[in-house]
Amino acid sequence: MSPYGKVAVLCGGASSEREISLKSGAAVLAALRARGVDAHGVDAGRDLPMRLAEGYDRAFIALHGRLGEDGCVQGLLEVMGIPYTGSGVAASALAMDKVATKALFLASSLSTPDYRVIDTEADLAAAATLGFPLILKPVSEGSSVGVSRVAQATTLAEAFHKARAFGFVLAETCIVGPEYTCAILGDRALPIIRLETPHDFYDYEAKYLVGTTRYHCPAGLTPERELAMQDLAMRAFKALGARGWGRVDIMEDSAGRFYVLELNTVPGMTDHSLVPMAARAAGLSFEDLVLEILSQTLGDGL
């Protein structure tokens, strides 16, 4: 008999990242069942409260994007008294809001690229003062949905409208240099991964659709700089009050300075995903990883 009881693996949902979430959920579900957990896949639609009332003891959240990663489902689970994986309501909401995330990073003395918030085309002039290249991204989306790298002012409006389709827009100084990610599992930072893609940046296609992206783990950093980056990632994780697990994205500029980009509180768990890759480098199988995340379920005292 599994000590976790009946577990709902929440996936799908209604966000722009639905298809990725379904893949994450299927992988998590298979791993839990392989370890003898009484796990059931639950597509998080409007009937989710009724589905959860079917006697679930815990929930493994494999939802990405709005309504699943932003504190909404976390709040529902708390109201229903169902322990769940990952960060709580406040940390989930803060991490999903890139402007709020930036403010907390800066308040915690963590280096992050300069930025402007854009609401209308009239704000584009202010964004251009950051200099080019720029990154334009929706304030509250993940998986690089709606994100563009803008090399010159003539393409700024086009990139703005692409991102604006998903809500308010963040214009961010583009740090030119290596891109890294650091997975957090409980109270430890896993080995750093360096991302290398022929695309202008690590966009949606590079993440999920093509096989040209290269992942380097070990990342090629000296032991001292690897530890420094892991410490930076853990500080960013704690600055937002996150817990359980997550992934922090970091850039390095030409002078070797590290910049925190954002925190993902429910990272992907697909065959292209980075947290399982870092876990393998730390000696954890995918099944080990999933079970450890489940074991750190939030709300056990409810």
User: Whole-number radius of gyration?
Assistant: 19 Å
Task: Write down the overall mean pLDDT.
Answer: 91
Q: Termini, distance in Å?
A: 22 Å
Succession of helices and strands:
EHEHEHHHEHEEHEEEEHEHEEHH
- Unreliable spans are none
The biggest sheet, with number of strands, parallel, antiparallel or mixed sense and barrel status, is: 6 strands, antiparallel
Helical region count? Answer: 11
How would you sum up the global shape? globular
**β-strand number:** 13
Beta-strand proportion: 15-25%
Helix content percent band = 25-40%
**Oligomeric state as shown:** single chain
Class of secondary structure makeup: alpha+beta
Descriptors for this entry?
alpha+beta, four-stranded antiparallel beta sheet, 11 helices, 21% strand, globular
